[in-house]
Amino acid sequence: MAATTRLAAKFNSYYAEKPVLTTMVTNAILGGVADTVAQLITAFRARVGAPDDDYLSIEFQELHREKPPAPGELGYAKNGPPPFDFERLTRFMSYGFFMAPLQFKWFGFLSRVFPLAKKNPTVSAMKRVACDQLLFAPFGLTCFFTFMTVAEGGGKRALTRKFQDVYLPTLKANFVLWPAVQMLNFRVIPIQFQIPFVSTVGIAWTAYLSLTNSSEEE
């Protein structure tokens, strides 16, 4: 608890001086943590010989991934745990870093347009959530898949295929998780902690995106 308090105080001091840069660095670190988790999950599943197409199974039947060979079968060593992909880690950290200023502006916009009223703040928070999920969520996922595809060296055909295969299932998964998270965020969390809170909860979500993106890439 004491360490958390000191960390929060340190974050507040940096945020007061350079809010955008502090948010960018925080987002990059948490994005790196999320992709590391995703790569560890992938390596563990490959090691135990579990099918890759049942993780976080939210409409992933569309990806039609082949079950890896069991231990002792031909090709098992070739399909063993992949080495840690530092380039992929860098892509995720870069995405979090460069997306943070846009998130910063967006959260500030929501707080100005829908200020929390003293009498009934829940209504204002619900308006923020609705606006965030209907406008920013589809846009954010578009930015994510576009950035990752271009950073991976993919062209127009690869980008089109990615949107055809995984964009809508991922957007549906977004609508399952994020409305409740954002309701808590806008209603309770102070504005300087809103993006770090989203990024912290988003470790699991970004790991999901990482698995989705790498699944389609493969």
Short description:
The protein has 218 residues and is an all-alpha fold. It has helices at 2-17, 19-48, 86-113, 121-151, 156-188, 191-217. It has one domain.
Explained architecture:
The chain is globular, with a radius of gyration of 19 Å. It has helices spanning 2-17, 19-48, 86-113, 121-151, 156-188, 191-217. The model is unreliable at 52-77 (pLDDT under 50). It is built from 6 helices and no strands. By secondary structure, it is mostly helical. α1 (2-17) packs across α2 (19-48). The protein has one domain.
Keywords:
218 residues, mainly alpha, 6 helices, 76% helix, 0% strand, globular
Element pattern in H and E: HHHHHH
- The secondary structure category is mainly alpha
Looking at how many chains there are and whether they match, the oligomeric state comes to single chain
Percent helix range: over 70%
> Roughly what fraction of the amino acids lie in strands?
under 5%
Give the overall average pLDDT. 81
Computed over alpha carbons, the radius of gyration is 19 Å
Unreliable spans: 52-77
Distance between the termini: 42 Å
**Rough outline:** globular
Helical element count? 6
Number of domains: 1
Give a short account of the largest sheet: none
**What's the count of strands?**
0
